[in-house]
Amino acid sequence: MAITRRTRHDIRQPYLIGGYPVTKSEQVVLLRRPDGALRPDDFRHEEIDLPPIGRDQFLVRNEYLSLDAGFRKWMSAGTSDGYLQEMPLGKAVQSIVLGQVIESLNPRYPVGAWIMGRAAWERYSIVDGSDLMTILEVDAALPIYEYLATLGTAGLTAYFGLFKIGLPKRGDVLLVSAAGGGVGSLVGQLGKLMGCTTIGISSTEEKCRWLMDELHYDHTINYRLEAPVAQQIRDLAPEGIDIFFDNVGGDLLDQALECLAMNARIVLCGAVSQYEKTGPHTGITNLWQLVTQRARAEGFMFSDYVEEFPQAIGKLSQWIKEGTLHGPVEITQGIENTAEAFCRMLAGKTRGKCLVKV
Amino acid sequence: MAITRRTRHDIRQPYLIGGYPVTKSEQVVLLRRPDGALRPDDFRHEEIDLPPIGRDQFLVRNEYLSLDAGFRKWMSAGTSDGYLQEMPLGKAVQSIVLGQVIESLNPRYPVGAWIMGRAAWERYSIVDGSDLMTILEVDAALPIYEYLATLGTAGLTAYFGLFKIGLPKRGDVLLVSAAGGGVGSLVGQLGKLMGCTTIGISSTEEKCRWLMDELHYDHTINYRLEAPVAQQIRDLAPEGIDIFFDNVGGDLLDQALECLAMNARIVLCGAVSQYEKTGPHTGITNLWQLVTQRARAEGFMFSDYVEEFPQAIGKLSQWIKEGTLHGPVEITQGIENTAEAFCRMLAGKTRGKCLVKV
């Protein structure tokens, strides 16, 4: 679709996109604080007027919204921290988005540029670049949504978590929780590329089969089976796990702590088991194992490595093109279905990276 | 005291020490598994016959026994781990000791050598060197017990924990729990040497004053005050703590996790609050703070760095002689008083490094 290019002095409403005037946007707002498990009616999809952009701002037409379990946390009250503020009620839900600049009063973000960054569940975003992380150099050989999936939040989280914190070596045993999720589905494959033996934890027998067949995990654990997870881990890795890439937290983390090899690294990536909890997180009782095993637990955020995004995206692209890395995606059509898709994902009913095609 | 030197073919009982025959030793054994807080009558001091040494063995006359809170853990049932086995009942309690070789069938440990290593609460140890960590090059300018204190378990634990895991930088805020203990009393001073602002946590107002007056802590926190420790930390360090050197674990660790600066390092050294617990450790609910603060918790054992002992001991000796490092010690006289001294230490009633002069 052609995009009308206008000068700095020509910004006015209505915006013209492909020659058509656009005065309205859509957004999905947080209606109330969820009480335990999130429900689609905690949100509202609504149409709003699109205001003009101001100084240094630019207008992005979002193509895809990223669904990231981690954002669930900030929907609850009192969750402001070093990364995000508690999400306000009645406002569009914060999210990572992928879109194209279609109007700009900011010379660093010219019309036509593809950007990936922090905005919200909305059709159009008006931003000033302070929350935007990167202008993409789009490779036409790849579907654009990959920049929000294997080359986006999921891929960069898997990449930096594994390589900066996990420090994989050939022969290491790598355990991954939520192994079929957006991040986990990539961590297992990256671990295999590094010569690790991989064990994926998931919630159904069917998903476990998929982990082995499609994502090439060496072994899987169904955490809903009767046998305790710690016992299942010990059966598969009697000498302990060298790396635990944890997306789940809570009791699963506590059990994995019982099974560490010497000098193990725990990559603290997510705690999806805890986001829906009201009250304090599940108490971790086995932290002392970090001492007896001289092991390390470390948190990170992919966004801390923004300077290294180009290099990481380059490597991940190369692996995709070589066919050695395949990031499964589950794309929901229509912004109006965003809340439901997010709830399905948190309930563990999805596979791979979840996106919404606006 | 002169030590009779004999050849390999001359080993027989009685051993002659200073010309006098020695046929008996003394030891302190674990009589029963403690139930909660340790009591002196969980142990028994007893006289035993001293057997002859066998092939590759040597006889050490222990001068000092080190009291280390960490060993409390292995007195309980089911505590075998990557570091030590559960201590057997009726046997001398395992401990780090300092002594001199007085008979030897092991050429690597000649008569007269001073050794520091793992043995037990006993007057004489018969060992083969496999558990002995180091032969000391004794500096006559320092009291010999320093090799079990500031140059021994306490100093090496403080040194490797702080420098290998804590990674102090000028201007860092360093929080230390059990700040007046054998390790903590040194960590604070080493932190000051590195240009850190130091905060020591202790259990009484009197001890807190001592921390400031004698150990040069910049600030102190009495964890028994009504104000929550997290609030006290925030008042002293509104921008958070960069390093937490933790000897206590449990609730104190959980509260400190709420007060981390970005990229903080938690040195997991001890968990004295947990050793006396029956059942699981206190659940840590704030581990997620490691993610939001991109922080790290890591365990270690000083004994992992045995190759670097000479260098560490050299530096620590230099600081002692320069008068910039002062390791307080509390020496109990007589092996028969070992159990009582150990219980006093675990109850938080001692100051600095606790030793027993055999």
Question: Which descriptors apply to this entry?
Answer:
alpha/beta, homodimer, 6-stranded parallel beta sheet, Quinone Oxidoreductase, Chain A, domain 1
Compile the SSE list and pairings.
Two copies of one chain form a homodimer.
Chain A: E1 15-17, E2 20-22, E3 24-30, E4 43-49, E5 58-66, E6 94-104, E7 114-120, E8 124-127, E9 132-135, H1 153-166, E10 173-176, H2 184-193, E11 197-202, H3 205-213, E12 219-222, H4 229-236, E13 241-246, H5 250-257, E14 260-268, H6 272-275, H7 289-292, E15 296-299, H8 309-322, E16 329-333, H9 338-346, E17 353-357
Parallel strand pairs in A: 10-11, 10-13, 11-12, 13-14, 14-15, 16-17
Antiparallel strand pairs in A: 1-2, 3-4, 5-6, 5-8, 5-17, 6-7, 7-9
Helix pairs in contact in A: 1-2, 1-8
